[in-house]
Amino acid sequence: MTVLDPDTQASAQTSGWAGDTAAESGGTDGEEMPLSLRLSIADTLTLGNATCGFMAVYFTTTGILIPHLQGSGESGMARHSAATAVILMLLAAIFDLCDGLVARKLRSSPMGAELDNLSDLISFGLAPAYFVLVYGMVADDAHQRVSAVAAIVVLLAVVLRLARFSCVTMKDGMFQGMPSPFGALTVVSIVLLELPFIPTLLAIIGTAWLMVSRVEYPKPRGVLAVAMLGWIVSAMGLLAAWAFDAPGGQLLLQTGCALQVVLGAVIPLFATARRVNTFRYNRREARAAQLP
Fold first, then answer.
1. Exposure winner among 1, 85, 233, 240, fewest CB in 10 A?
2. Cβ pair 205, 247 in contact under 8 A
3. Burial class (CB in 10 A: 0-12, 13-18, 19+), 148
4. CA torsion sign, 186 to 49 to 37 to 28?
């Protein structure tokens, strides 16, 4: 799911970030680039998001899958590659967070919303799904075919999540369903926890369900955006400590992954409790209005 909100999508339909004055006046010749083909600053950040997602797939393949297929016993290289792939997904989440903020402050090109959805599909759909697939191939207790099904479920959940986001208008400040960046990081955290296969599989499928559910999640704005950015940077530090086998790095990483999973499960409970309280308040108000 993309971090862009309806306001950002609306801004993406406005004129291009650069050179719009000349275009509005008709230009001076026929060589003027159409507004729909000009990239804004927000679009450049979005392309950074896509690049990080692709490179995450690259490191997962070259550092984890290929050495496994070749029978290499270099667990250190696999650990470094896994950490690099996840850090790239985290960096993609930062780009996704920033492009929405920039698009709200500056003008975005007409193709901004489309670029954002396509980039999110790569970084938060393909990359984590592929990570799950490779996990099913290299883990000792995993089942490759079942893991492939779980990977497909994650990918399709993100596809449906992004498609629905483009069609459904939610109230300001809320997402319907777990945002795809948050969902992708939760899926990867579940894998990195190294739980038994069945609990891992169920947790991954549960996360995919949350992405396509109607559970409300708050949009990262203001203090929440700063907190999210801080959490992502902290997660990068935990991954680096784990990759370089720092003292306590394994425990720190598992603690961070567990916190990510808990947040994914707890946030919907707060949203549900708020909706219940709002319903009860409206019902009391309606009853009070009926009294003489």
1. 233
2. no
3. middle
4. positive
Q: Are 64 and 46 in contact (CB under 8 A)?
A: no
Distance CA 47, CA 42 (A): 9
Q: What is the mean pLDDT of the chain?
A: 81
151-185 pLDDT, tens digit per residue, is 999 999 999 999 988 777 766 667 888 999 999 99
Joined tokens for residue 275 = 């909706």
- DSSP code string of the chain: --S--HHHHHHTTS--SSSHHHHHTT-SSTTSPPGGG---HHHHHHHHHHHHHHHHHHHHIIIIIHHHHTT---HHHHHHHHHHHHHHHHHHHHHHHHHHHHHHHS---TTHHHHHHHHHHIIIIIHHHHHHHHHHHHSTT--HHHHHHHHHHHHHHHHHHHHHHHHPPPPTTEEES--HHHHHHHHHHHHHTT--HHHHHHHHHHHHHHHHS--EEE---THHHHHHHHHHHHHHHHHHHHHTT-TTHHHHHHHHHHHHHHHHHHHHHHHHHHHHHHHHHHHHHHHHHH--
pLDDT band at 270 (very low <50, low <70, confident <90, very high): confident
Write the pLDDT tens digit of every residue in 9-36.
444 433 333 333 333 334 444 455 454 4
Helix pair angle (144-167, 180-192), 10° resolution: 160
Kindly report the pTM of this predicted structure: 0.79
**Paired residues of 175 in beta bridges:** 217
User: Which residue from 19, 40, 15, 36 is spatially nearest to 28, judged by alpha carbons?
Assistant: 19
Q: Which of 128, 140, 112 is nearest to 39 (CA)?
A: 112
Interhelix angle for 249-290 vs 180-192, to 10°? Answer: 140
